[in-house]
Amino acid sequence: MRAVLKALLSTFFSLALLLGPVPAHADTPDPGGWPKPRFLSYNVCGAAKHCPPIYQNSVTAWRDMVVRSMDHWDADLVMLQEVCYEQWTLLRNHLAIRSGGPKYDSVWAAARTAPGCSRWDTDGDPDLRFGLVILAKGEAGTINNGSRVVYPLPETDPAGTIENRIMLCARAPITGRLVRACNTHIAPGDLGTGQVAHVAKLTREFAAMGDPVVLAGDFNVLPHDDALDPLYNHSGGRGVFQEVDENDKDFFGARCDRSEDRCRTGEATAQKPCSPEVTEPGKIDYIFLSYYWFTTVRGDSAACTSGMSDHHLLRGAAAWEH
Question: Would you list the domain boundaries of the chain?
Answer without folding.
Answer: 2-320
